[in-house]
Amino acid sequence: MTPVREAIAAQLRQFAEEVAAALAEEPQPRGWSHEDLLMLGGLHVDHATPPPRERGGFSLCLVGVATDQPGP
Questions:
Q1: 60 pLDDT above the threshold of 90
Q2: Which of 2, 9, 26, 30 shows a CA-CA span of 20 to 30 A to 17?
Q3: β-pairing verdict for 65-66 and 61-62
């Protein structure tokens, strides 16, 4: 992975952590594990960014779930 892609992936992971922290303050997911909140935060981030094909094949892995899988 190139340095630019590594930097982008790191920023997206950080954003997912921030989303997870914000979700932890909401009443609905109270009691959820950090891993579950991070997975949900990662889903929010993945859906807020363009699909992998539009990113030139950039692959991001959050919580062990690769986002570079082909779409429907």
A1: no
A2: 2
A3: antiparallel
Mean pLDDT for 51-65 is 51
Cα 25 to Cα 52: distance, rounded to the nearest angstrom = 30
**Averaged pLDDT for residues 33-54:** 81
Cα–Cα distance, 33 to 50 (Å, whole number): 28
Sign of CA dihedral 47, 40, 12, 72: negative
Given a cut of 70, whether residue 67 has pLDDT beyond it is no
Q: How many CB atoms lie within 10 A of CB 13?
A: 18
Q: Per the structure block, which two tokens stand in for 64?
A: 């062990």
Rounded to an integer, what distance in angstroms lies between the CA atom of residue 8 and that of residue 31?
31
Question: What residue ranges in 4-72 does DSSP mark as E strands?
Answer: 61-62, 65-66
